[in-house]
Structures are given as C-alpha cells and as structure tokens.
Specification:
The structure holds 2 protein chains of 2 kinds.
Chain A (H helix, E strand, L loop, with lengths): L1 H31 L4 H16 L4 H13 L2 H68 L3 H13 L1 H47 L6 H31 L9 H22 L1
Helix pairs in contact in A: 1-2, 1-3, 4-5, 4-6, 5-8, 6-7
Chain B lengths: L10 H12 L5 E2 H8 L3 H13 L3 E5 L4 H4 L5 E5 L1 H13 L12
Helix pairs in contact in B: 1-2, 1-5, 2-3
C-alpha cells in the first residue's frame, strides 16, 4: 500500500512539475495583459527570454510570479509616465517648431492687411473731403463751376463704390482674422497650461492612476486637437474667402480725377 | 526641440549604470542586469525604460529570429556615448571609481 501511495505521489509530482513551465508562461501572458497595448508584445518576449535563462521550472514559476505578476503595476506605471512625457515633449516640439512660426506668419499677414487698407482709406477720405469742399463752393460759385461739381459728383461713385466695397471687405477680413488668431492663441495657451499640468504630474511620484490620469491625458489630447482645429479654421478661411479687388478701375479713376481737376479749375476761374 | 531631462539617478539606477560600465561592449540583456545586481526585473525594467527614453541607453532586439536562436529573442541594451559620459560624470561626482585603475594595463 505504502509503495502504491509513493508511486501515486511521485506520478502526481511529476505531472505537476510538467505543468510548471506552461503555468509560468501563462503567468507572463496574464501579467502582460495588464500593460498598455503597445508594450505587451515586447514585454512578453523579453520576459519569455528571461524565463529561458532560469535554471529550472521552480525558478521559472518564482520568476514569473515575483518579477512579472507582482511587478507589472510598476512597469505599467513607468510606461504610463513614459507616454505622458512623450506627449508633453511632442507638444513642446510642436509649439517650438510650428506654432511660433505660424504666429509670426499670422502677425505678418495682419500687418499686410493693415498696409492694404491704408491707401484705400486715404483715397476714400480724399474723395469724401473733396466732395465736402465742393459742396461749399457749389452754393457760392457760377454755373460752370456748379456743372463741373455736379459732373464730379455724378462720376465719383464709380470709384468710391468699388473702393468702399473693397474697404469693407478688408475691415471684415481683419475682424475675422483677429477672431481666428485670438482663437488659436487661446487654444495654444490652454494646451500649454495642460502640458504644464502633465509635467507637474510627472514630478509627483504617486503611481499613475488609470481613471484620474486618463482624464488629464484626455484633456491634453482634446486641447491639442483644438489647436489643430484652430489652424484648420484659419487655413480654410484663407482658402475659401478671397478678397475681391476692384478690377479695371484705372479709367474710372482717371475720369474722377479729371472731373475733380475740372471742378477745381472752374471754381478758381469763377473766383477770379 | 524639447530637451530630454536627465533621468532620476537613484542609488539603484546608479548600480544599473555601473553594471553597464563594467559590462561587455556588445551590451547586456535585461536578465544579465537584474542577476548582476540582485534586483527584481520589475524594478530593473522601468529603469531601463527611463534610461532608454532619456537617450542614455539604446535597446535593440537580437537580430536572429527565435527559430534560429532556439529561444525567445533578448533585448540587448548598450550605453550610448551620452549615457557613458553622464554615467561617468555622475559616478565621479559621488567619488565612485569605475573600471580598472590605469596602472593595471
């Protein structure tokens, strides 16, 4: 009987021993499932290589349990920190390489818009001032001068009209541009603030928490995406809205300038 | 380009780095390191990740496929020139002598 029991125990132990290697492998696979998806395969392979270096099946089980199952939380935490840090680094690079340059381009564009507006402003204000002055003289001069002034008044809308239209387009464009640029700067400021929160979180040694830290990661992603949206809005605005510049206006300008010169000369003659 | 911060240099991290300085030029696998310093792999691997991320270590999988090796591939870590200089700097700041004395050669 004792011999039979000994044999049975021996067989059971041999059987159990045969199961130790697959059990160690199973523990490794199970531990790897607790890691972020992108790191699972690499760690499974690395741990499998470590397992092979173990002298026997008992050591393999001890390794799999102590180094993989119990320590996987540490590794997941480190990978989480790594992900956070990589995202913050990537964002800083993005700001350094793109946003600073883009902001400069936007500022230059704004200056160009203001420069475009200046001569149009000058022309319109010169024509309006001339009209005001001529209105005064209209009451105090002879018939020829009044006819000349009336002619000027009749032809001037052919220039004032298109340029006023162009001027209001420039105004509108500046206002929209300002809104879009402010939107972009606000998005960048919010993302920078979140990036700093991520950096501060990395200085804190408490383990990465799936629920709380995921919220921070999501917020960061959302704010970085908002920058992308703001940039898309700006580029779409420029691609879809074109300035309609007054075309073939030179002959009209000549007619108006001639009419103004004629009116001035008629007033001068009337006075003399 | 955002400058990578230097990794935290705990006592254990310095021990890991010291193993690299004394180790073979062709690099070390994770198991070589944790066996050499008697730490658990769960402690060593996060350190290796951190050092690799900081650019102090470079990790590469063995070139041959597992079918030819007859075992799973190992990831081999090597000190980069940056890691080498930084490690020597950190260890000499602590007055820890590394390598063999010059008169031995």
């Amino acid at each position: 009987m004792e011999i039979l029991i000994s044999i049975l125990i021996g067989v059971a132990l041999m059987e159990a021993y045969a199961w130790l290697d697959p059990l160690a492998k199973w523990l490794i696979d199970r531990a790897a499932q607790k890691l972020p998806e992108g790191s699972r395969d690499a760690f499974t392979e690395q741990w499998a290589a470590d397992l092979e270096a173990m002298p026997n099946s008992i050591a393999k089980i001890v390794f799999a349990f102590r180094n993989c199952t119990l320590d996987v939380a540490n590794i997941a935490d480190e990978i989480g920190r790594e992900g956070f840090e990589a995202a913050a680094d990537k964002f800083d690079d993005f700001v350094d390489n793109n946003i600073v340059a883009l902001d400069q381009v936007l500022q230059e564009q704004m200056i160009r818009l203001q420069e475009n507006e200046r001569p149009v402003n000058r022309l319109l204000s010169a024509l309006n001032t001339s009209l005001e002055h001529l209105e005064y003289w209209e009451k105090n001069t002879n018939d020829d001068a009044r006819k000349a002034i009336s002619h000027f008044r009749a032809v001037s809308p052919s220039v004032i009209g298109p340029f006023s239209e162009f001027h209001s387009q420039l105004d509108q464009r500046q206002a929209n541009f300002e809104t879009l640029t402010v939107g972009l700067r606000q998005s960048v400021a919010l993302a920078v603030e979140t990036s700093q929160r991520v950096r501060r979180r990395l200085l804190d040694d408490t383990p990465i928490d799936d629920s709380v830290d995921q919220q921070l990661a999501d917020l960061f992603t959302e704010r970085v995406n908002n920058i992308g949206k703001a940039i898309t809005d700006i580029s779409e605005y420029f691609l879809t809205t074109k300035l309609v510049v007054p075309q073939n206006i030179a002959p009209n300008v000549k007619v108006v300038v001639d009419a103004l010169t004629a009116a001035a000369s008629a007033i001068k003659q009337g006075r003399s | 380009m955002a400058k990578r911060a230097d990794p935290r240099l705990s006592h254990q991290t310095l021990r890991v780095l010291k193993v690299f300085l004394a180790g073979p030029k062709e690099g070390l696998a994770g198991s070589d390191i944790w066996k050499a310093i008697g730490l658990f792999s769960g402690t060593v691997y996060p350190m290796l990740l951190r050092l690799e991320h900081a650019g102090w270590l470079k990790g590469d999988w063995e070139k041959l496929p597992p079918s030819e090796l007859g075992r799973p591939r190992k990831r081999i870590y090597q000190l980069t020139p940056l890691g080498y200089n930084k490690t020597r700097e950190a260890l000499s700041a602590l007055d820890i002598h590394v390598g063999s004395p010059a008169w031995k050669y």
